[in-house]
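Private note to self, pasted from the team thread so I don't lose it. Backbone tokens:
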């Protein structure tokens, strides 16, 4: 079945060339390598680096991301000699280059000239330079300087034979996204004038009649700086949208320079789609603007079963890419340096992480970084070439992984086969996180994590989709948390169910519109008809208080939240057995047209969520998969055939059924009928 993945992926801005390039130029295999910062080392080390890269199977490195101060040593004075020599050396060694525009860290001379370009916090504190990302993205001085260095790089290296792709900036939104200075305030007002036809429309959208906040002139509007108590939520939501757009405008500005002066070379920037790592960008919008969607992912080392979050990030990145192959541009060989306790990866874990990303759509595995730094803030961050050198476990695993990635070259350009969709909207998340919600335990991200984990444990491969996307190809759509829902999204979900789809919705969804205004009528306004119920009142539970549900196959356990649900066409499946909502429906199913819509009005524990999802999957016609726990099986399909990835995250050998015969690419063995996957191992079968 062909599955639509997200809303329309047609680029909003022409790429310059007739078609956008969606893969690195001149790279016939999967990408393997990492950030290379040779400016930290004397030049005599560079030749050794290239020799070791070839030994490790490196095919591409990212260069120049933090090099602005070395490239433009004073305003308008450039030194490209070292970069010329480096790119020529890499080209001679057969290493392709992802060349960065170094605009994430302006030079010290820039800040001396333009201190106003430093960002201001919501509390009114101006941050200093000396780290990275200290940028007011509304600053004209920054915008001009960033475009100028980008143009110099494009003119000099736009047709260099080593150049595979351009890498704009670095991890937009991390660590600073919003700036609350007066320049940003003026930029915000210009953005609002484009969004609203006049002040009357803005006042209506923001509900400024409440607390006497009505505006009589555009100049009266300021950023949502620190206020005595909760600020206007609609204003804060628009500010979040503006912040994402302001950063995106700067990306487009650099991208368009590169497209004009370096035609045919794809342009990307590195996202951080893991929901715990970057919250400030609407990646549905950003995904339409890059030529290649690229992502950075770092495990939360102490989190139990953190491989599930890894899979979730990969699935979300693939979905932002519209289902096309994407590129893992950074992850770690071992420990990072910024978590409270930076645990090393266990033997084999680096390979599992890398190959899981490839299984879920990445056309490569790149790291931060190639050679471990001896100084600076990230000197204790792991690298492909660690401080311990080549006589180390990490180096041996890097070389072995390079061989494995090299053996998977035919996987390139294939697409992942999915079973279901999960709806996610960054703007809804922003809205739900604002002050004064009915409970501090209403956490959209935690709810999405829990529902994704439940689907993962049922061995479902999921796409993520925007609420207004075409969902017609999916037998099952899950909506863990969608507090904000537009009218278009509401109609979309009703159409999906009426035409035969199975929908499952989590609590506190469909409550407000795009302005954070409560939909008229009883809750859940935007979903009331499709779910066949109303909610008379929310009933959050005290901290630590559990609640019991009774229904088919036994009782379920929930916590933190309940609702006074009234069925109005829906059939109760489980009922609250105790607590303030005892006797009311807790989980319902509503038959509508050719499909059904389920509602889960509380936060179920892992076992309860699995029980409900089992019923929902059966309703959708999805079969049970008899696979061991913590073994994931994902399929990619392309012109050269089908590729089945089996990743065993458990400590026990596993045996899984195969849908046919094939060649196991990592061992070269012929297999058929069943596939043995060793504990902690990975197998890839070309069927």
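Design output:
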């Amino acid at each position: 079945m062909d599955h639509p993945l997200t809303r329309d992926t047609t680029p909003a801005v022409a790429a310059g060339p007739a078609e956008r390039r969606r893969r690195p130029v001149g790279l016939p295999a999967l990408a393997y390598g990492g950030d290379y910062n040779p400016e930290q080392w004397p030049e005599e080390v560079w030749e050794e680096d290239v020799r070791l890269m070839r030994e490790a199977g490196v095919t591409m490195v990212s260069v120049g991301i933090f090099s602005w101060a070395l490239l433009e040593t004073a305003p308008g004075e450039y030194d490209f000699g070292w970069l010329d020599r480096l790119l020529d050396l890499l080209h001679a060694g057969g290493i392709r280059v992802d060349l960065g525009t170094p605009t994430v860290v302006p030079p010290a001379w820039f800040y001396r000239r333009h201190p106003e370009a430093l960002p201001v916090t919501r509390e009114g504190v101006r941050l200093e330079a000396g780290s990275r990302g200290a940028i007011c993205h509304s600053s004209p001085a920054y915008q001009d300087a960033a475009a100028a260095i980008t143009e110099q790089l494009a003119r000099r290296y736009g047709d260099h034979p080593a150049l595979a792709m351009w890498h704009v900036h670095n991890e937009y939104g991390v660590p600073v996204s919003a700036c609350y200075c007066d320049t940003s305030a003026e930029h915000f007002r210009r953005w609002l004038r484009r969004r609203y036809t006049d002040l009357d429309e803005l006042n209506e959208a923001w509900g400024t009649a409440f607390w006497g906040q009505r505006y009589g002139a555009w100049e009266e509007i300021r950023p949502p700086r620190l206020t005595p108590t909760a600020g206007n939520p609609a204003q804060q939501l628009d500010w979040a949208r503006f912040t994402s757009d302001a950063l995106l405008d700067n990306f487009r500005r650099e991208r368009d320079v590169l497209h004009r002066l370096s035609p045919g070379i794809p342009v990307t920037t590195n996202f951080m789609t893991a929901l715990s790592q970057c919250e400030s960008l609407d990646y549905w919008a950003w995904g339409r603007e890059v030529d290649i969607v690229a992502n950075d992912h770092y495990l939360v080392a102490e989190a139990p079963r953190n491989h599930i979050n890894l899979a979730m990030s990969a699935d979300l990145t693939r979905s932002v890419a519209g289902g096309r192959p994407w590129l893992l541009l950074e992850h770690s060989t071992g420990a990072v340096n910024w978590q409270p306790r930076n645990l090393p990866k266990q033997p084999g874990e680096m390979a599992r992480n890398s190959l899981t990303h490839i299984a879920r759509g990445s056309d490569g595995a790149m790291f931060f970084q190639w050679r471990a730094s001896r100084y600076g803030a990230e000197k204790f961050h792991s690298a492909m070439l660690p401080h311990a050198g080549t006589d180390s476990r990490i180096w041996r695993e890097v070389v072995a992984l390079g061989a494995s990635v090299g053996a998977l070259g035919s996987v390139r350009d294939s697409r992942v086969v999915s079973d279901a969709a999960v709806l996610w909207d960054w703007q809804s998340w922003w809205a739900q996180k604002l002050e004064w919600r009915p409970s501090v335990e209403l956490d959209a991200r935690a709810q999405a994590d829990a529902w994704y984990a439940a689907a993962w444990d049922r061995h479902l491969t999921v796409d993520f989709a925007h609420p207004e996307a075409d969902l017609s190809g999916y037998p099952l759509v899950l909506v863990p948390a969608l507090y904000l829902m537009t009218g278009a999204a509401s109609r979309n979900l009703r159409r999906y169910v009426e035409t035969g789809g199975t929908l499952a919705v989590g609590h506190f969804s469909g409550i407000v519109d795009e302005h954070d205004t409560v939909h008229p009528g009883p809750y859940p306004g935007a979903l009331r008809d499709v779910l066949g119920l109303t909610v008379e009142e929310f009933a959050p539970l005290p901290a630590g208080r559990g609640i019991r549900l009774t229904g088919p196959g036994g009782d379920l356990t929930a916590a933190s939240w309940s609702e006074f649900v009234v069925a109005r066409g829906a059939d109760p499946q489980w009922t609250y057995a105790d607590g303030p909502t005892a006797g009311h429906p807790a989980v319902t199913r509503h038959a509508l047209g050719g499909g059904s819509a389920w509602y889960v009005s509380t936060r179920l524990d892992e076992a309860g969520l699995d029980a409900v999802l089992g019923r929902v999957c059966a309703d959708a016609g999805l079969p049970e998969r008899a696979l061991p726990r913590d073994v994931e099986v994902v399929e990619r399909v392309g012109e050269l055939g089908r590729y089945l990835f089996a990743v065993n995250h458990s400590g026990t050998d596993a045996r899984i059924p195969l849908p046919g015969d094939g060649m196991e690419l990592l061992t070269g063995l012929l297999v058929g009928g069943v596939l043995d996957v060793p504990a902690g191992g990975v197998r890839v079968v070309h069927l």
